[in-house]
Amino acid sequence: MNVQTLEETAGQLVAPGRGILAADESFGTIGKRFEAVGIESSEESRRAYREMLFTTEGIGEFLSGVILFDETIRQEASDGTPIAQVLERAGVIPGIKVDKSTVSLPLSPKEKFTQGLDGLGERLPEYRELGARFTKWRAVITIGDGIPTRGCVEANARALALYAAFCQEHDLVPIVEPEVLIDGDHSIERCYEVTEWMLRATFDHLYEQGVELSGMLLKPNMVISGKEASRQAGVEEVARATVECLLRSVPAAVPGIVFLSGGQSDLQATAHLNAMNSMYDGLPWELSFSYARALQGQPMEIWGGDVSKVEAAQKAFYHRLKMNGAARSGSYSEEMEQEAA
Fold this sequence. Notes:
Elements lengths: L2 H11 L5 E5 L3 H10 L6 H12 L8 E6 L1 H4 L9 H7 L3 E5 L4 E4 L2 E7 L5 H10 L4 E8 L8 H20 L3 E8 L7 H21 L8 E2 L16 H13 L8 E4 L6 H14 L6 E6 L1 H11 L6 H18 L6 H7 L1
Parallel strand pairs: 1-2, 1-10, 2-3, 3-6, 6-7, 7-8, 9-10
Antiparallel strand pairs: 4-5
Helix pairs in contact: 7-8, 8-9, 9-10, 10-11, 10-12, 11-12
């Protein structure tokens, strides 16, 4: 493990004004999103879509990294350039999702466990060869009647820590993603409680595995009301609950926290990140973004698989990146959305 390499890459990924695009949707996930906007999902349509995003002019100004899917990191752009090189030329660091998705937790079918540790040590050198410099692994925690259980929290926290240790052994920065889902009718207080529990368990296991905290990034959910909750917390309330929860759970040695959008709208995700950065000063870590839908929703809809719509879709993608780039310093405002419109 080369700690200096890990720290340098982690630092670049949370550089001021920039964040990460999660473009690592599995075949099933991107298939559903394509279907919703009338695009047929094929190897070629997925390649064309991601090439459209990655070749948007000026993305390196607001994007530090992109998380790729296994298929994508092996693909080439239409001019024959490997996708990882397309990103590097734009000043963006290529990363790779290395988990193998979730299964129902044995004996607790309402909960999930993430697979992918088998053979991980053998897969990582190949990903490095293909251009990846960081990785991602997502654990999923559901809030519901009697869940999460301790068994689910501990199993997923341990898997996250083992994954991170494997990656650091190969000089790849691990993004550790313990996601408490927004699905459900739970309160923001219940989300806080479960998020703190999951984060504490995760960092306990990271410590036990000898993971170098200065060479990793955390990708958590925001502390937010469940989607079906009767009372929806406001922007400042979400920002305050999230940062206070992180201050109680995340060691200062971690260089950055890159939030997932987790079912929030694109405007919500930007507003929440902005509020955190404008309300708090001098936090021990950078607060950044690693959004998927909140960056891609509008561009995907505009593109719809139509070559003639590429420019308009790229314009929308660049705009969302710019808004989140502003939210990194707490300087975003709703007026900025109107000006662009």
